[in-house]
Amino acid sequence: MKNSILYLLFLILLVLNPLQSIYGQQIDGPANCRDGINGEILYVLEDSTFIYAREPEDNWFKIRVDAHVDEKDYKNGHLVKGAKLYDINGKVIGVLQKDIETYLDKWYAGGKNYTAVHIESYTFKSNIRNSTILEREIERIVSIEDDYERNEELKELISLFGFQYHSVSDYSVFTYYEYDNQLTCDIRMFIYFDNHDLIGIAKGGRKLNIKSIDRGKIDYEFDIYYFFPLTENAKQQFVEKMDKYFLLRA
Q1: Are the CB atoms for 150 and 138 separated by under 8 Å?
Q2: pLDDT tens, 188-212?
Q3: CB-hemisphere CA count at 13 Å for 71?
Q4: d(CA 86, CA 24)
Q5: What phi, psi does 55 have (nearest 5°)?
């Protein structure tokens, strides 16, 4: 029952933030988006555009933007220079600076034809709002001393970044996947709750700069930061359960 209540709150937040639940990061722009680190400019994105960003590499983020386009701007497998990128409401969110080879996604719904593209590029770290970078927001939120306020902000973050919910024994587990492209993905972060208590956050790759009661490992590549006092036996059982969960989700 307690897991169901938390999941219901999670679903409500998704309904209230349908666009933001797909991409948590936002452009602080206008921003140049390039074909590589310090590469040629592919397109320019407008301020506040929602994107998906992987973890930074040498102060650069690999990002993906999904946008609607005019089909007339798609020729011979390329979206042509000068083509405009639109959000779901028809607002211009970017303009191409050169031809880009990409796949055109087409579908029909609600009596209308839609065409969209999914374009990857690189942009410098200053082109993404700090408040929308996952790890920075996690570090800020867990520093909040009031448990209720902290957990409410975590729920909003879970919705904003599109974490996926699963129930593991008595725990509510929210998983954030890092997409390499539209077909493959890696797990980037877990957030664990027991009822309304934040048990821990597990993170692969770059370590988080946060204070926690204790730390450990889940699998061989994930650091776990504990925020709720557990006995050594309880930690061992928790890790065993989460290792099995990881093997199923990885």
Answers
A1: no
A2: 788 888 877 888 888 877 788 888 8
A3: 6
A4: 18
A5: -65, 150
Task: Give the integer Cα–Cα distance in Å for 171 and 242.
Answer: 10
Q: What pLDDT does residue 19 have?
A: 34
pLDDT at 93: 94
Counting every residue written for the chain, the total comes to 250
The span from the CA of 229 to the CA of 169, in Å, is: 18
The ranges of the chain with pLDDT < 50 are: 1-22, 182-183
Which residue shows structure tokens 């928790």?
Answer: 238
Cα angle, residue 148 at apex, residues 166 and 223 outer, rounded to 5°: 50
The domain segmentation of the chain, as residue ranges, is 2-19+131-249, 28-128
* Tokens 């979206």 found at: 79
Residue type, 139: E
Instruction: Say what the pLDDT of residue 248 is.
Output: 59
